[in-house]
């Protein structure tokens, strides 16, 4: 019987660890073995093989992730996109239809708009803020609804409770990309979502040194997704499993720091006279603040803002900062800064960007775990140059 632990800080350290410890090892060893001896397994999916996602390194991670989100089952994948594409392709086939929140992560948006038509899967986008408009997009063949916990780069929080009740009322599978919040700040399964997905590349690993993903949720669905993953081949290598496992142990500490630091930096920026607008769900001025307060235990480390003076001022600010690394991606221990229009949202048309409220001067920051005062001091000098 696996022991159960009450608090997430303790689960991160102890849940899913081998019992008894392997040769007494305190840290989970890496099982760098493609296959394992046959012991009478009767199903293809139960043969022990790295691609079948069932080596000791996979199993330990699955049990830890299950404990973190209080779910039934989990599976780790080779990347966040492997988690998203495999989960969707397990639920949807030719003739089916998906409702997806507009303003999704770029890779997901590209996958839906670029690949679904060729697969014969229908797609409509919904406004996460306007539940009244969702029913008109339903079709008899609608099978699932896909949303994100917080949108990129404006950090909007959809009406997530309405998403769950809408999915239940219409027998849809509800999927949520929980990458930006992490299980420390939000546990979708507790609120009724069927599947929670992660790019573990970001906060869960936290050290910007691997690409990995996970799907967490209902046992029957996770079994289907695991079998699809076994066919499509997007399994996580044992060495990456080990790095993810090690990174996750400090998730609670890191998120506490990301949450506190991002809120302080958002408040600093909001009060600065050179700043036009700040988007951070922890600010009272953010339209999603009420929902975020109800649903989340913290507001995470992502924020975006527009300096006064347009694109020139934005580029000057980015050039003048010394501390952040200018790079897309997020969720690592180092502060990253980027102008989404030139990176993550370069593929989005000008009309769509305007409709979604993503201005050319918008700067996105993934706040790292450096000392908050040092980041603020650097931002202050960059704004005053
Ligand atoms: C990065 C990211 C992904 C994709 O993850 P990869 O690990 O790069 O494949 C999906 N969703 C969100 C919200 C992300 O930030």
Describe this structure in words.
The protein is of the alpha/beta class and 385 residues long. It has 2 domains: 8-248, Aspartate Aminotransferase, domain 2 (3-Layer(aba) Sandwich), CATH 3.40.640; 251-383, Aspartate Aminotransferase, domain 1 (Alpha-Beta Complex). The chain is built from 13 helices and 12 strands. The protein has helices spanning 8-14, 56-68, 80-91, 106-119, 160-169, 182-185, 219-232, 238-248, 251-271, 289-295, 310-320, 350-356, 372-384; strands spanning 73-77, 97-101, 122-126, 142-148, 173-177, 195-199, 213-217, 275-279, 302-307, 325-326, 336-338, 363-366. A 7-stranded mixed β-sheet has the order 1-7-6-5-4-2-3, sandwiched between helices. A 5-stranded mixed β-sheet has the order 8-9-12-11-10. Strand 5 (173-177), helix 6 (182-185) and strand 6 (195-199) form a beta-alpha-beta unit. Helix 3 (80-91) crosses helix 7 (219-232). The longest helix is centred in the C-terminal third of the chain and has 21 residues, at 251-271. The chain starts with 7 loop residues before the first helix and ends with a helix. The structure holds pyridoxal-5'-phosphate. Residues 79-81, 105, 107-108, 148, 177, 179-180, 199, 201-202, 211, 213 line the site of pyridoxal-5'-phosphate.
